[in-house]
Structures
1.
Amino acid sequence: MRSAEVKEADAGDAVPICSLRVGSRLYGIETRQIREVLGTTAPRRVPLAPQYIAGVLPYRGEVLTTVSFRALLGLEKRDGANCVLVFDDEENEDRFGLMVDGVAGVIAVQQDALEANPSGLDERSQEIFDGAYKLPSGLMVRLDPQRLRPSRLAESGLFGSESGPHERLKQVRQGGQS
Amino acid sequence: MGQKPDKGEVEDLTKEFIAESQEGLERMELCLTQLEKKPDDEELVAEIFRAVHTIKGTTGFLGFSRLERLAHAGESLLGALRDHRLAVCTELISGLLELMDGLRGILHIIEATGTEGERTKDNDNALIARLLELRDRGSSMKAVPASQNQAPLDKLRAGSSTSSGQVAQHPSQSSDHDAVLSALPAAAPGVAMAAAPSMQDKTLRIDVEVLNRIMNLVGDLVLTRNQILRCSPGEQNFPELARRLDSVTAELRESVMQARMQPMGYLFRKFPRLVRDLAATCGRQVRIEFEGQETGLDKSLLEAVRDPLTHAVRNAVDHGIEPPQERIKAGKPVEGVVRMRAYHQSGSVVIEVIDDGAGISTERVLVKAIERGLVTPEQAASMTQREALQLIFVSGISTAKQVTSISGRGMGMDVVRTNVEKVGGSVELESRLGSGTTLRMRVPLTLAIIPALVVRSGGESFALPQNSLVELVYVTQHEAEHAVERMGTTELYRLRKSLLQLVWLDRLLGLEHCADAERHDFYIAVVESEGRRFGLVVDDLKAPEEIVVKPLSAELREIGVFSGATVLGNGTLALILDVAATGARAGVRPEAEEGTVVDAKPAEDETAQIELVNAMVIYETGQHQSAQGGDGGRMAMPLSAVERIESVPLSEIEYAGGRAVLQYRGELIPLEDDGNLLRALAEAEATASPGDARKDGATATVLICLRPEANGARRVGMVVRRVLDVSAGRLLAADAAASQEQLAMVRNRVTTVHREFAQHAGNPQTAILKEVA
């Protein structure tokens, strides 16, 4: 629904984009899609959960499932400060979090600077990226929170299969026997 | 008339009126089905009369004349019934049910549009005429079989809510009087149930006392806040204030949560009617029984399980229970039984729909599943019966008509599952061919508070629901090396001469910390759930806490081991372990599959029937002390009746009018002291030498129990010598020849169950409200 609105908007309009740091790259999410930005938090790890789940956080009396964007990109875990963005899961009337290294700031970007995903993109990136803004300083990959919903990531089956609960359990059992 | 009432006050009044009337009609529905069974019960008639009378009185005031006319006709018929000018017959009940549906239909239109849809007046006239005819005819008429009247009604009700919705919206479009007559009333309940936020979903009745308690707590909270605001951080009494704030908030939270809890009985109320109508349509004889109506469930969840339950009951009557001839052939009583049972287990509420019908043939399910390519023949061969039955929930199978006709079940089972899973629950099916089917829904107690023990393993905290916890064993560093013994890859611990399978929580969950756990001390939490009993090995125990269960997102629920999460006292999150799933994951097999299918045995077996009960608290009373030489009387109390075991200093026990009372959570509860233990303790305290622990510090052990009473339950304290054990026991069905006492077999010893609480233990005679449908 929201993407449709964006397309309807005048191509020349500037949209405020929140830029995020993950690793050495910048990513952007439209600010109006973000519900809240939580400062440094340490989500509670959930054993046996898929790797892309960073853990759970208490949020407004509910338990917020948090996705680790680093894990989605296949990057190593890192210690130190991080940031959790809270989004609405439109399909399930729920909320979820996205853990990134940090929030860089808000910039205004012209809508016509957006270009769709190139067809040559690998399957995983195709799944999580939503085009890129051609900025003077370089490309900023656009993210659509609805593509990063935990339920959708689980359905796609592209992430965390190598570390799914069953495989991990097998390892554990073998470990227990030896 | 049909004019829209003025805004503001009238609108509020209307809302209130609708909520009140719907409640009244619900009571009326229940009473009507009971009345059919007990036609001479004047109380029931009076109750029904009141419901209709209230509606009539209020409608006149609010100006809903259509509703008033209908209610008036009903009232005059009921008046005749009340004055014994009429006798109860099937036709009369059906007529009254139709009246009720008619009233409901109009109420719904009012709720949706603010007016009462005047154009369908003719249909009311037909119904009113029928009611008046019934009144004038008296009881001399031979009743028309109910099934004929009910048939079109049920067909419509069984239809989806969309068609009902249309009827409600365009009540005047059909000119066929008969069709509308039966369609409009029939549509009403369906609409009220399906149309999302109906008035009933939005309102909640709360005991004024509960509200007062909440208000008192808020008062406390304000006072504490004032004190904190005035006090500087360095002040000495700051920790004390913080503690008070903590306790007030905790109590406030608890009170609000409890206010949201509604007994399952609210939901069960509508089923006698449903079963009655359905049984008549399908030509079955069915009785419905309820158990565990007092089981509390959060209001929002109660609404969420309403539809799946309706579906399940419909299935049980329609496909589960066989027609009378077949039942006779199979040697069963002609009347089938559908039993609805609700109880708490492992942080969830379990609702079972049990029928004693034909059961489901797993072979046929498998054959069908193979045909449809859902499983390969090899897979099918290796499937257990249980696994095969769960195939019914797969949408491909359940929606297929063929399976419905051969298995007798399956229609819409995937819908049931989807709905229950939507609220974080699960559904399973158990069936024995020829003796019945059990559908078990497990709904999480979202928002509910459960007592749990917080344990540490692998450096993380987990919450272990207390109700699956049997006992705790501490293994010291010294013992650790020899305590664990192995058979193959299974690790075992000798617990009082029997072997207990051990599950290392950190290893099971793949936590890093699992290095040589056997080298240092550890705890074994002996847990039992769904027939699986095992020892869960954890590093450390933290305080027991009353935790608020928060649901996990679907992806995390899928892991299966966690039933939810909770925020601990220190603000961190802890995951709540699902004990049964943990055991299953670790490969612990259920010890014995206990059949929960209703026994279809002949009646003479019933005296020997042994009812399975939950855990029992075994304690020593002060009685028989002299007779048995200091051993005291051994008694058992169902664990479900015991709220808390308190150690109370004697100084806190007060006496009012010669009766010992205790102030407990702002409530004055009476203490029962059968064996005069309090006096004995007081004497011991007085005579103890200074320095003795008993001097000035004597405590009495008090079981805080909930005593069932006519209007709910009351807390009462039982003074006991000491608590011996908590153990699973079986209630021995009362033997007519034996004494009045309810006996139970606990730990292979016959133990007396405290008489007032025996029914808590699931005594079939008292705990089940029987209804004939």
2.
Amino acid sequence: MGKYKPIIFLLHVALIFFSALPACSQNNNSADTEYRPSMPNNVFTQIQIRPIKSNESSTSIQCHASGVDQSDWQHISFSELPQNQFFCLRAKINIHRETLSSNPSLLVGMLGSTDFRWDNKPLISNGLPARSFIDEDPGTIKTLVRLSDDLLNDGEHMLSATISTFKVGKELDSIGYVLAIVDEQKLTNIVLFVSMLSAFFIGVLVILFVIFQLVNWLYQAEKSYQMFSVLCLFAALLLSVEQAKFWLDYPYNWHALRLSVILVLTFITSFLLPMFYVAYFRLKQVKIWVTCSLISLIIISLLDLSYDITSVVLFFAALFWSLVINLLQIRKSGQGKAVSVIILIGIGFIIFYPEYFVEFGFAMFFIAIVLTMLVALIKEMRQHKARSLKAERIKTELLRRNMQPHFLMNCLTQLMELIETKPQDALVLISALSQEFRQLTQHNEQDYVPLFDEIALCKNHIQIMSIRYQKDYQLAVVGEVEGIWVPSAILHSLVENCFTHNKISSDRMFELKVTHVGKLIDLTLITPIENKTNHQGTGSGNHFIHAKLAELNQKEAEFASYESGDNWISKISYVNININAASE
Amino acid sequence: MIIVIVEDEPLIQQRIQRLTTEILIAKDPRIICFDDIDNAESFLSENTIDVLLLDLNLMGSDGFTLLKSNLAAAFHTIIISAYAEKAIEAFEYGVLDFIAKPFTKERLIQAFERLLHNRKNEYPSAKYLSVKKAGEIQLISIEDINYIQADGHYTWLNLSSSDEVMPTKVLHSKNIEKIEQLLPECFMRVHRSYLVDMRKVKSVRIQEGSKYTLLLNSGEKVPVGRTKYEQIKKQLNGI
């Protein structure tokens, strides 16, 4: 449960975040509440616009005067502001002091240059509205002006403005975002909160980027670490550009560019997300996954949807592919359950609240995904550490396993006896022993050795055992040995194991069958044992072989060992890896 | 003197046999060799022998099970093994000696001397005694034994255990001399037929006819040999 704590914490943060949302959206949407009769006070109603033709001026059409002929004025909602126009806007508001917030300020969020008046008195200008593209001096995307008390008498007031919107640069769904009277203090607090939160997330992502770059370069090069790191970087960039509107008051003609950048970053992030899982699960069909996700993302980009919807759909596609990959992985190995659940939640979120998703959900959700990745990666690092420790241990164990003390001590006892009785035979045993030591030491330094060498090692061991048991053991090899490599010392370990645990018959030969289908090698060692054998296996020999195969990352390798009639049979199948060929 | 050797490697078997014959030549040794424990077991169940020289792979649990069943028998067992790290455990279960391979003639002489002269040794003493009861091997902790009473070639182990499963008196196949060899210092031969854990003695009592008796904490009384009285008194005062 402990590993999900960060996610739970995050969900808490998300809750706080969303509870702050209504405050925002109330302000955002107040322009749309004009038709709600229950709230007639302190919101702008009857927003009208009228283009200023080339032969007119704002004065000639009485832009800022109230009670004039309104026949050629057009009623709109604030989000329907026209692009590439020089026009006049006016809106009515019914001020009711008692219900007005404590620090009333006018908040205008739109793409355009504006010159606002309050009851025909200059209020604020943002940039310089003009009749043409060339003359217009673009204003910033956001205007906030404090409304002094003398402006806010109870009763009806009129807000009017000359506006030009020539420099948007691209056809957008909407260029008017907010026109409302807000509590300045509240707004500042919300902006501060959102900025801090996103700065925090961006910081986290950047730190993760740096850490995983370092891990990749200095500790262990892994595609999944690299992928994760780059994903964090792009997510950080995306989040910074996305949230820039909160703290950066840029001229509105930059807005289209910013949206394009967001789109490109979303595209890259959406591509990297499923690719991370491809790398993390080490899937083989990389090309297929790359093609699938790229094609779907490109098609979505070409659909000519609005910026926001394109972003959402792109991310939806990324989630879809990630979910597919994770679900396949659950079937394959049981990994990916937590991630799938989070992705499902995310997909549900996108379907039910697409508008919140763009504004806030994306960042939150992305962080959640990143956290699951982080948990998974750290788990993997732990496994990796355990694996490398184990690999070290195996290396040191190899010699000990194949030159076990009891083997050595028994041999030395034999030697004592031979020296006292048949010194000539002692020399033979000493040569065979030294040969075995030399070969084992050499093999110990390699992961794979040619099967031919391994067989020589086994034959030497069998010779030693022949002397020890005063019998004539023989090893027969059936099948082609040339070009086949074998994890070092595993056959030797099998032979050694058989002698340790069984009474071996010398009437029949040891038999090693070598077969291969494609790259898969099958080795079958048939050991003749005497009928009445009590198998005293402690399993440490088998454990060694399993560990060795695991250490060499022989994932499809199989090992089985069983008694069959008066034989002890050990079967190993593994992928042939030719060291020379691999290193070329 | 009948000696059984269990050793699967012919050359080592030959070595043990050769050296044993040389050492015990005066005792007219009769040596029977086996290369696996199963054949040896069936021989041992039908014959009386003096000592078992056993090579056992003690790495698995099977090895110790086999060992314990032999330790319940009347004869002493000497282990000759390459698994030197198992020596202490083997002593705890009551082997007379543990000879690590490779071994010299001198080491074998030492072991036989201990066997023949009923000498206590410098090795770790037993912590358990194996007894065979209804075909099953039971381990009795030395700590639970109050005193041991000889009964012909057998001995009775008198236990302090209040455990109902374990009766307070258990028969052991070894004679009192052999048992004494395996026990720690705290056990004292207070009488020709009695071995007592001196830590469990409450007091010494003089009875009519200048007979002495030990009163144990458990309330049991154990006779004291005439010649042993002074020694016992000294030791009790010392404690």
3.
Amino acid sequence: MKPLALGLLASLFISAAHAEPTATGDLGLVIERATGTVVLVDQSDRAALARIEGLGDLSHASLVYSPDERFAYVFGRDGGLTKVDIVTRTIANRVVQAGNAIGGAISDDGKLVAVSNYEPGGVRIFDADTLEMVADIPTDSKTIGLVDAPGRRFVFTMWDTGETWIADMSGAEPRITRIENMGDRPYDALITANGRTYITGLFGEDGLTALDLWSDTPEPIRVLPGYGRGQEEMPVYKMPHLEGWALTGSEFVLPAVGHHEVLWVDAATLTETGRTQTHGQPVFAMARPDGRQVWVNFAHPLNDTIQVIDTVTKEIIHEFKPGPAVLHMEFTPRGHEVWLSVRDAGKIMIYDTQTFEKLGEIDADSPSGIFFTARAHRTGL
Amino acid sequence: MHKFAALMVVAGVAHAGGVTDPDALARLVHQDCGSCHGLTLKGGLGPDLRPESLDHYSVDVLRDVILDGVPGTPMPPWRPLITTEEAEWIARYLLKPETP
């Protein structure tokens, strides 16, 4: 009797899902890194809607959305590129495109999906509709910091050789511009929301390197060279991520490497405007969408803590411990809530960003990245 | 199946001596070493740590790399966070995941 009832319920649910149009604007996906699954979540209801299985090794996985917010392209560590249909809650297509991948991006027109790979090193570009490969760009290096840029371009950087390449996909064949001397072992990069400035963080030296993508011939611009000079270098148990950037009027905030601080940089002049000492090695320093707060999480073993920095005073205004292993944060598009993945608690925790009150939690199996569909409309995400 | 795996790990610990929580150590290996070496240890920004890639190293060498890191590379010293016995257990676990 029970299985029958459950079966009936399931079929009712499925037919209902197909009968009703599905609005996806307040949905999101959460990576469950250990089980190769993603959880479809509803921001407004603060609830999980479905679990989609069969995505392979999702350690360090990320995803981007199609412009219509229907499809997610999930980039797995095992080289898997999976196209998830969040309306039907199924896998629409999946290819294993390399042996060891690190991230991806979608072109400004939504037609191309690019994946950056460690093994074999380089970038492969796929038709977003069919997942057929349209370009293969070997780089002879582990390739990091892949982002989309306006003009149907992708920008990415080489860990081993310290070069940044711009692949212009507006013509029939990719046109590659190579920029040398970006620095010693770039580990990640970001592009500003207006698509103008690309910044790589460096592991091998204190400093960052920027490119002005509005320039016809972009040249490396050193940012904060030697920022840790005179300070003891501390071990880095997890590499920071560069994603999401703060604007308080006109500043970026970026995590330092090997130093327990975040760095403030004037967006126009790329000079230092301040530093804020933090609880540990920052992993993500992410701005609330209005830019008034920056939320920071930390590397192992201090990854149970979050600090919130006021961007006007650059002071820490709140610190709390959501639970063991806070891996990622995602703001609602207008910033009223932040969702945290607390891996070892098996929860996504939801907080009000004004009162810091906890609003709810959702069960998830070793959750890592949280991605709301509003990312579909943002350059670099 | 899970119970069996747990028993194997406990047996390994008895052999190692001095390591109190092998489950936590195995978790550390996959989750935190995995940040760079991949959750399945097949490599990422850091190299492949699967047994077939490491089998030309001795336990002692691996233990020392874990404790002191590799200067000039992103491999950090773990000495501030774990004991020598724990590093040795991890070295054995990397070489022989079934019977560390």
4.
Amino acid sequence: MSQTPIERRVVMIQVQDVVRNYHAGETVVRALKGVSLEIADGEFISIAGPSGSGKTTLLNLIGCIDALDGGEITIDGTRVSQMDKRAKTEFRRHNLGFIFQTYNLIPVLTAYENVSFVLSILSLPEKEIEERTMRILREVGLEGMEHRRPDRLSGGQQQRIAIARALVKNPKIVLADEPTANLDSKTGEEILKLMKQMNEKYHTTFIFSTHDTMVMEYARRLVSLHDGQIESDERR
Amino acid sequence: MKFIISLALKNLSRYRRRTLITAFAIAIGLMMFIVVDSVLIGVEAESMRNLRWYETSSARIMHEEYWEERLLKPLDISVEQPYEIISSLEQIGIPAAPRTTFAADMILYSDDFGEDGNMSVQVTAVDPDLDNTVFRFEETLIEGRFAEAGANELVIGSWFAEDIGAELGYWVTFVTRGRGGFYEAMDMQIVGIVNCPNPNVNRTLLMIPIDVADEYLGMEGTVTEINMAIPERSDISKEVARIAEMLDDSSQRVKVARWDELAQDYVALAETKRGGTSMILFMVFLIAAVGISNTMLMAIYERIRELGMMRALGMSDRAIQLSFMIEAGGIGLIGSITGVLLGVLGNIYMVNVGVDLGFLMRDLDMGYRIQSVMRGAWSPATLVVAFLFGTLLSMLVAYIPTRRALKMDIPSCLRHQ
């Protein structure tokens, strides 16, 4: 699938002068120092940078799971930074998918249940939940493993469940924080290919943080952060 | 909702060991509560019954001024023509018996007791023909026989007899002031020893025929009290009001008192004990609550990342809270069912066999009118309360740590190790 130039595509995320400070006792850690960024609908973008550069903080702010200290974030025309806690929860439930470094699957649930759980909290009909869950599990290559619990699956398979869980509700954006950091390079590459494939198929905006150069290679746009500021923004 | 319940139930089985240990702790706490409560109810019910059967009767008629002066045991403030009242009571189906109680010095002789001595006692003069229609002494005689009308004979409580070394055939003398203030001495021979389920009676009982007392004390046919046996299932207050109304028509100035008014000291003591035991029960529950709370705290603490993930994916705090509370409620439910079952098993033993505390009761006056075996009593309300309390308490104690965990911001939850 060919990339549409940014100027011709709908802007999905607008990050304007975002500031985030953390307080560690008397010390104030300035995690983001006025970051501005526009991300278009359907982009496959990597936020790269060394540890402490602010990439996870930026991802958390876009993901509406952290509160900013200055600036503004707008997602699909909604000023999420102005929302209260309940509205953010509601927004995340409908619009955002998350993939975590450590998969964060619920160990008591099967692969099927881990994925269908996000549809359950959307109160969808049982039949639709089943259809969508089975379809996405097929697409991520976990057909036949839907009744297995996470402890009986490999790291790569667990991350596939996490990808399925993030995509099953057709979110506008999928945020992945170091999605391959816990995987060997071969499995990591497979996961990246899968994510890219899903991005192309569903046209979902993918934003992932990484400090792995192999992962950066896969991104169509690479935003490098350093010391809480954007160092470079490179399109490929 | 279905998902929340399903998740909670899966977590119950996932942490099977934790579930079982916590449920077991709850079960033990509830079992203790049920059994202790059963024993307390049983002991109180039996004490009250023994009070009515051996001490106070269901209700008592006295001269209206006697109640105020009762500690002095005045013989001149008495009920006149008692047998007319008894006859009227019998006509309305209430057995009644006269008694006269008086304070005396009891003199013991070295010929019988080995040493001379005397002690202050309370003597009860009873009508041998009527007394057992109100009180239940028939089955309590362990040696000799009851005193006969017109004879200088004495029946004594078994523990009292043991304490002073009394045996059948021994003589004692009661020195007291008769009605009008004159001094009188009565020689009485012990003809019977009773051992009844009321330890207070065993410790103090001295029973002589009322006609003998009447003659010695110059009672002129009056008595200090008329005791009544109101049927067990009747409403005593209503019956007492009915009797009082009936007696109002007579020329007598009398008062009718219920057994619980007569046994004020016991009732007050029982209430105090109830307060104390409630505190013990509360402590049992508090320990169980802290245990459950701690377990839930640990369970929630180790799942903070999972909780953060759920929140990130858009699950509401309320739904998460509910899920944890259902999980805790599930533990409480298992614990409560087990606790109630264990409590029922414990109760079967306590109600049918009981615990023999005779060795303790003999020398220690605990206030209860129970001689030896403490038995339990069934209380369906206690079983229901225990069950609900165990389940609801578990849910309640899960609320606080979950609430605390939900106050953490999501990135901190996700970073949590």
